[in-house]
Amino acid sequence: MPWSTRELAELAGTSLRTVRHYHDVGLLPEPERRANGYKSYGVGHLVRLLRIKRFADLGFSLAQITEMDDTDQTSDDALRELDAKLAADIERLQRARDEIGTLLRDKAAAMLPPELAAVPEGVEVSEAERSLLVVISQLLGPGGREPFAEWMRGYERTPEDIEFDALPADADEQTRADLAARMLPYSVQLREQHQGRLLRGEDVRGGPHYVQRTIGEALRDIYNPAQLDVLVRLSALLPDDTR
After folding, report:
1. How many angstroms from the chain centroid is the CA of residue 177?
2. Are the C-beta atoms of 205 and 136 separated by less than 8 Å?
3. Is the domain 5-67 a CATH 3.40.640.10 member?
4. Model pTM?
5. Which is deepest, 8, 18, 111, 218, by most CB within 10 Å?
């Protein structure tokens, strides 16, 4: 027994409005009419309607479905193309979820590029350190990002770092000199591990001289006079081949 438009819509799990729209855009052929003028749908219409509905549910636009014929080859090609797009979307969304997770754990990381925001879990980073990392992240060229990310992944905050952060502006000379000397071994170790690759080379933004000037300005803005003096003393203590 032939089906009416309402019966066809119910069988396909869709609406009368949708069936009529598919007629209007040429996706679903118009059926013959009965003697009383009502449309008369058959199995072929149901199969076609279900096919359209399935492809639309998968994410194909009606324009894309219109371009497909009823052969398996065109459907397979379109499905492979959609599958590749969905795979790329999933990868992009997973990166977004990972970044959101990082931001939920550490809201200050919002200022850093995703690949540079991952300070090891349990390591407290001071506001001054975070501010300096933001500046550095904007100076890195393509060749410096991975070494810097590697440094971030292996970052360890030492007791001297904590002492440096708390150093008052009026700290006496002996205190500053002693702190610089105690910070030296770990600084040398870091430089040797990364072979001087951090913020070195011609691929940094603006070139080496611009980087040196920008970092200097950032340090003067972030740290107090006693802390800056410790950094100057530390730089003077570093062996020439690690500066």
Report:
1. 42
2. no
3. no
4. 0.53
5. 8
